[in-house]
């Protein structure tokens, strides 16, 4: 089986196209060190990624996935500023594209598909990372987590992307590694592909009922 009548492919970024956890973890621990707080392993921080920078910082300050409701707002603002400043200066030190991402994206582009990124990552970080990895030229445009008033799992970014590209929901497919991606697709009736290698909080991607599941990014070629 494969998709039919698709024109635009929407991609999540972190955990789908790139493994950015090494640099995110370094920035998180830099922030925590600056605040004289406990630091955490990269494996622990990996489970906190996927909901944008603000949630990541709150989870780091809480020391767990569940955010401390009593978190000091002043501390949070200071921590967020430290994190964003450091991360912005160290975006692509150890970040790398997953296997077969570059070749598959170029193949899809050559087939005539238009490619879009819909990420919860702050918009200003997306372009420099794509450029550093040589991926910026294949995408028509991208949305960050701060581009609109809502982000995934709300369907608004996906609907906005459809409108911007002048296509219907049925002409698009969402590719992602987490519940945020698949729930956003489900919430607007868009078909989806779940990848098994990303950051999905330790959960099996299949429980969110993607249209297809792939273990390697290159498997997209057989679906489109």
TrEMBL record:
Keywords: Carbohydrate metabolism, Hydrolase, Magnesium, Metal-binding. Mg(2+) binds at residues 12, 14, 177. Specifically catalyzes the dephosphorylation of 2-phosphoglycolate. Belongs to the HAD-like hydrolase superfamily. CbbY/CbbZ/Gph/YieH family. Pfam families: Hydrolase (PF00702). HAMAP family: GPH_hydrolase_bact. Its cofactor is Mg(2+). This is Phosphoglycolate phosphatase. It is an enzyme of class 3 (hydrolase). It comes from Sulfurovum xiamenensis. Its EC number is 3.1.3.18.
């Amino acid at each position: 089986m494969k998709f039919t009548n698709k024109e635009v492919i929407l991609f999540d970024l972190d955990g789908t196209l790139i493994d950015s956890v090494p640099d995110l973890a370094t920035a998180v621990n830099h922030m925590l060190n600056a605040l004289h707080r406990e630091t955490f392993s990269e494996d622990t921080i990996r489970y906190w990624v996927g909901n944008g920078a603000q949630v990541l910082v709150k989870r780091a300050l809480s020391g767990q996935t569940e955010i401390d409701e009593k978190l000091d707002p002043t501390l949070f603002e200071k921590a967020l500023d430290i994190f964003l400043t450091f991360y912005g200066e160290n975006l692509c030190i150890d970040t790398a594209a997953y296997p077969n991402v570059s070749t598959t994206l170029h193949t899809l582009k050559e087939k005539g598909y238009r490619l879009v990124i819909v990420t919860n990552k702050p918009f200003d970080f997306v372009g420099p990372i794509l450029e550093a990895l040589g991926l910026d030229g294949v995408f028509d445009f991208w949305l960050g987590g701060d581009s609109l008033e809502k982000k995934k799992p709300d369907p608004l970014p996906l609907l906005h992307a459809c409108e911007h590209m002048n296509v219907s929901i049925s002409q698009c497919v969402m590719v992602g590694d987490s519940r945020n991606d698949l729930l956003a697709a489900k919430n607007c009736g868009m078909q989806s592909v779940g990848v098994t290698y990303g950051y999905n909080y330790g959960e099996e991607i299949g429980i969110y009922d993607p249209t297809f599941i792939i273990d390697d990014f290159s498997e997209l070629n057989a679906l489109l």
